[in-house]
Structures are given as structure tokens and as C-alpha cells.
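G.,

No rush on this.
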Amino acid sequence: MENQETVAVLNDLLHISNDRIAGFEKVEGKVWESYPDIKDDYDKMITQSKIMKNELINLITEKGGTPEDSPSVAGSLHRIWIDIKNSFLVGDKVESTLENVAFGEKAAIEAYQQAIDSGHLYDKSLETVKEQLHNIKQSYAQFKKIEDYKKKD
């Protein structure tokens, strides 16, 4: 039973990782035309997200589980909503996009903290998830910096 609970929590985080990757990849063209200087930092966030995804898949497999390697329904719906909202947006789509990414990162932080607090992660899984949470918090802070950078223009 313990492994099943751990696998379920890790699969939830895997969905979130896939949501982050899909969200990050969707942003690229919208932001970089206006802010090319921050593209390298952003590319590092995408690469880091893919590494985190692979770590979660490995942890799930080690616990005897099957990785549910897809984005979440909620994340997919959120991206569709953003597309619809942006299609009707009269103002700055880059600003709206950055706000949505920051919102997504904040939601990921909350989900990771809930996973840690759940009591279903042990040893290596708990250590890895804590490290990933730290990385997501850094990513969130980086997006806040991007928003600040954007405001200077």
C-alpha cells in the first residue's frame, strides 16, 4: 500500500512536470521577440523541467509503478483557456503570458509542498521532490525577475 500511495503522489507531480514543459514550450515565440536577453535563462528552465520529469519517472519505476507520462487535464484546460483569452486580448499578450507562467509556477509550488506534506514520500523520493520544489521556487523567482525586467522597458 505504501508504494501505491508514493507512486500516486509521484504521478501527480509527473503530470505537473509535463504541464510545466508544455506551458514553457508554448511561451517561446511570444516572449523572445521582445526580450531576447532572457532566452538563455528560460531555456535552462525548460531543460531543468525535462530533467525533473525524468527523475520522477525513475522514482515511479523504482517503486514498481507505471509512469503516467502525460499532462494533466487541468493543465491542458488551463492552456486552452490561455489561448482563448489571448485571442481576444487587446493589450500586451507578452505580459499576459508571463503572468500565466508565474501563476502556473505558483500552483506547481503549492502542489509540490502538498506532496511533501502528504507523508507518502520517503527517503530518495522525498529528497528528490524537495530538491525539485527548490528548483521550481527558483524558476518562479526568475519569472518574477522577467516581469520586473519587462516593466523597465
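When you get to it, here's the other one too:
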Amino acid sequence: MSIGALAARFGLATHVLRHWESRGLLHPVRDAGGRRRYGAGDLTRVATILVFKEAGLSLDTIRNLSATAGRAARQGILRAEAEELRSRIAAARASLELVEGGLNCAYEDITECPNYRRRLAEQVGSRGAAVRPGSS
């Protein structure tokens, strides 16, 4: 299968496949004319890359997972990704709470809303802890 056919199959631009190749994610064979040729394994590989990208993994992480043969190494990579994802989820939940608090706020000025004021106090408290008394 040509690069154009593979790209079309997944709704990608051909330059995306070339980029993935340059990053070590794809290894197409070349025909006598030097053109890339993709087989069934490449189809699976592109689908795998897309699934991992949808999950939020970087191309470097995807490459590292592909190069990792051992279960323990794979679990180490995925543990770090899971922890990063948990952090992003916590931040997104906090953001959603603030936005929903604003939606439910009866005050004209959002800075008067209890949810906003609580978050502001938390922010000032966390920043203020690093400041020495008497310094500005």
C-alpha cells in the first residue's frame, strides 16, 4: 500500500506518516523505486498510534512503549502517564467546579461568589506561605 493510500485510510495527511517515520514510529519498506510501501502490520501500527494519541500519550511515549519489551518497563512508562493523567483530571475538575460555581452564582460580580472567594483564599494562602513576613 502506498503512503497516500495508508494516509487516506485513516484520514491523515501524508506528512503525518512521514513525521511519524522520522520519529521512529513507522518503518515502511521501500520498493525498487524508493517509494514507501506499507503492509498489514503498518495498518495495525498506525491504528495503535492513533489510539495512544487519543489517550493523550506523546509520540515519544508511544515510541518508548513500542521499544519496550518487558512488562516491568512498560508498566513504569504507563504508571508515569497515569499519574500525569490523574493530575490533569484533578486540575480539570477544579476548573469545572470554579466555572459551575460561577454559573450558579447569584451575585452580579463573580468575585463576590463564595466558590470564587474560597479558591482565591486558597491561592493567596499557597502563594503567601512562600513570602516572608515583612517582605513584599
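The two ends are 66 Å apart (CA to CA). Helices lie at 3-10, 14-22, 40-54, 59-67, 71-103, 114-128.

Enjoy the weekend,
O.
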